[in-house]
Amino acid sequence: MKTAVVIGVGPLNGLGAQLSVRFARRGLRTFVAGRTQASVDAVVAHIQEQGADAIGIATDAREPESISSLFDAATAGENELTLAIYNAGNNTPGRIADMDPGYFEASWRTCCFGGFLFAQQAVNRMSSNGGTLLFTGASASMRGRANFGAFNSGKGALRLMAQALAKECGPDGIHVGHVVIDGPIGGDKIIKGIPQYAEQIGEAGLIDLQGIVDAYEYMYDQPRRAWTFEVDVRTSIEKW
Ligand SMILES: NC(=O)c1ccc[n+]([C@@H]2O[C@H](COP(=O)([O-])OP(=O)(O)OC[C@H]3O[C@@H](n4cnc5c(N)ncnc54)[C@H](OP(=O)(O)O)[C@@H]3O)[C@@H](O)[C@H]2O)c1
Hints:
Blueprint: E1 2-7, H1 15-25, E2 29-34, H2 37-49, E3 54-58, H3 64-74, E4 80-86, H4 101-125, E5 131-138, H5 149-169, E6 174-181, H6 188-191, H7 195-201, H8 209-221, E7 230-233
Parallel strand pairs: 1-2, 1-4, 2-3, 4-5, 5-6, 6-7
Bound molecules: NADP nicotinamide-adenine-dinucleotide phosphate.
């Protein structure tokens, strides 16, 4: 049975959840992982109602044992790990000059260190058939910005770790890719989390969730002799 692992799953109307839904619909047994059990359970129930195969495992991306147990499940028995997606990474605003060291470190642990733990497990658990390992990036992956230094450094480091890994693992048939989401996503994190902001930019300024998921699916489907490392996605009105 081909399996997928998606970590960083929150509300149903969010990127982690919609990636899980899409790949479960594609016939992959999908391991849905996130910090909050209730969110994971809701996404799994939604997938199962549609007749697709999903298993929820509450996992903290920053904890080595937690990540390793997740991959134990995704590779147990006849399970063959085919796709792994690292989507964890909450934004952490704040000025570097005023920042508490613990705050900076916590941001790095989610945005970068967790990606390393996840990637190491994923590439070591894929079979000789290879597989796909994808990372979620942001505008923060590409450029530093005042008040976002912690997030910038974590996301930027994640991107370069992914690029190094792509070169290490390509010859083994493991396609490593990175999706730069350049702007706000039209999902619950923005629409429900910061409604005034969502209203101010309007629907035209929010990146279409299914369009983002299409980018991951595009990379997943690429043939071995035509791989893309990176795709960037933004709305037509984004200033970039
Ligand atoms: N939303 C945006 O506008 C936007 C824009 C550009 C890029 N991105 C990137 O897109 C990804 C998230 O997409 P989204 O905003 O739609 O959110 P989402 O995929 O709906 O939710 C992401 C979930 O990741 C979980 N998470 C956070 N830290 C974790 C950890 N240490 N271990 C396991 N799970 C963890 C959070 O769980 P809890 O609910 O428990 O905190 C959160 O609900 C992130 O990588 C983010 O940097 C987002």
